[in-house]
Design goal:
Layout (H helix, E strand, L loop, with lengths): L6 E5 L19 E13 L5 E11 L3 E2 L2 E8 L2 E8 L3 E2 L5 E4 L7 E3 L1 E10 L6 E4 L16 E9 L2 E9 L4 E8 L5 E8 L7 E2 L8 E5 L22 E5 L6 E2 L16 E4 L4 E5 L2 E12 L6 E9 L7 E4 L9 H4 L12 E8 L3 E8 L3 E8 L13
Antiparallel strand pairs: 1-27, 2-3, 3-10, 4-5, 5-6, 7-8, 8-9, 10-11, 12-13, 13-14, 14-15, 16-17, 17-18, 18-19, 20-22, 21-22, 22-23, 23-24, 25-26, 26-27
Length: about 375
């Protein structure tokens, strides 16, 4: 694993005050913070960094009286649903599967809401926790919560995508802001299952661009001998206004047949326009997963995209930029329920280095200072 000068956890479950949670006093059950992780990140006008932290709030006693229980937003409040234990599969601590439907149906062991946490300019110290700006479900389309915010500044406004979870659909919702603290709901922009929509931090030839990652249960095979294998890939879409999106005809970043760590891939940080490896382009960090047990091993990789044709990969590397760091979570080992996961969600250019925000072990927020010279390409277009 690469060692960086600054690499630490800056916010975690013990830092969340549940008495100020949007659920506080509105649920007749004890809860706890399962994780405070996967933080979207952007720089504020005052020079500080803002993390939009996903707080997964779970029932302290989810299994009782022969049932599994979960929290759901309903009609402006919160209720607890119960399923017979014999009809569920609880092998994954983050969710449980409901048997007997003929297809995969699941419920979550926690409800997620978003907490803005302001950091110092270098991202290493917490300046303020803005509980008054916390974001919780507002409608039936996100009755199981808001997950994994990604923040971008485009022109003079900030944009945020979130994954909104409900039985209606697994959709991507968009918010806009003039200061990155007060957010206006703009609506559902992708109503199919999509876990990682990342808006580029700037326009490309007058249009908004975004990385997407549509999911499904069926993927068609590449021909024998192809350098790629079938599975989730990172796609592109463009928009005239940030609200209406058209998929790009060109393929984007696809999983590699010979690389175990790209058995499943997805977007990480919204692309920023910068220079690495002697070239200028859109730098994007993404995750690759190596199969292992239920969840797998998550690592962070990078690609540099053409500044005007973002579907073209100028440079990349098959060597992980970030790997899971068990030493960082050692002080929180009593709270661990997953291992082998680093899930990068934000990046900021800081001159001779980049400030990278990640979720560590689905538990806490990790900040890493990655020097600019750490971006050493493998071969041109190698990750496409």
């Amino acid at each position: 694993m690469t060692n960086y000068a600054a690499d630490r956890l800056v916010f975690g479950p013990h830092d969340v005050d549940l008495s100020r949670s949007p659920l506080a006093g509105r649920l007749n059950a004890e809860t706890y913070v399962l994780g405070a992780f996967n933080p979207g990140m952007v720089r504020l006008a005052n020079g500080n960094l803002l993390l939009m932290v996903r707080v997964a709030e779970a029932l302290r006693e989810p299994i009782r009286d022969g049932h599994v229980h979960a929290i759901r937003w309903h009609d402006g409040g919160y209720v607890i649903d119960a399923w017979p234990l014999e009809l569920t599969d609880t092998a994954d601590p983050r969710k449980f599967l409901l048997r007997g439907h003929g297809w995969k149906v699941m419920a979550l062991t926690s409800l997620s809401w978003l907490l803005p946490v302001e950091l110092s300019a270098e991202g290493l110290d917490v300046v303020a926790v803005h509980y008054d700006k916390a974001m919780a479900p507002q409608g039936s389309w996100q009755c199981y919560g808001l997950e994994d915010a990604r923040l971008s500044k485009v022109g003079n406004r900030w944009l945020m995508t979130t994954c909104s979870v409900s039985p209606e659909r697994h959709s991507t919702t968009l918010y806009s802001s003039a200061n990155a603290l007060d957010w206006q709901f703009e609506g559902i922009v992708l109503d199919h299952q999509n876990k990682d929509m990342l808006v580029f931090e700037g326009l490309v030839q007058g249009k908004y661009w975004a990385q997407t990652r549509p999911l499904g249960d069926i993927y068609f095979a590449y021909p024998p001998g192809s350098p790629f294998h079938s599975g989730p890939s990172i796609n592109l879409a463009s928009s005239p206004d940030g609200l209406h999106w058209q998929p790009c005809l060109h393929p984007h970043i696809r999983p590699h047949a010979g690389t175990a760590s790209t058995a499943r891939i997805g977007g990480g940080s919204p692309p920023i326009l910068t220079e690495v490896a002697g070239q200028r382009g859109w730098l994007t960090l993404w995750h690759g997963v190596e199969p292992k047990q239920i969840v797998g091993i998550y690592r962070t990789y990078w690609s540099l995209l053409h500044p005007e044709r973002p579907w073209e990969v100028l440079a990349t590397s098959h060597v992980p930029l970030l790997e899971p760091a068990p030493d960082l979570t050692e002080p929180l080992k009593d709270l661990l329920y997953l291992q082998d996961v680093v899930f990068t969600t934000g990046i900021a250019d800081a001159g001779d280095h980049f400030i990278v925000a990640s979720g560590e072990a689905d538990l806490a927020c990790r900040i890493t200072h990655v020097p600019r010279d750490a971006f050493i390409p493998a071969d041109k277009g190698g990750a496409q």
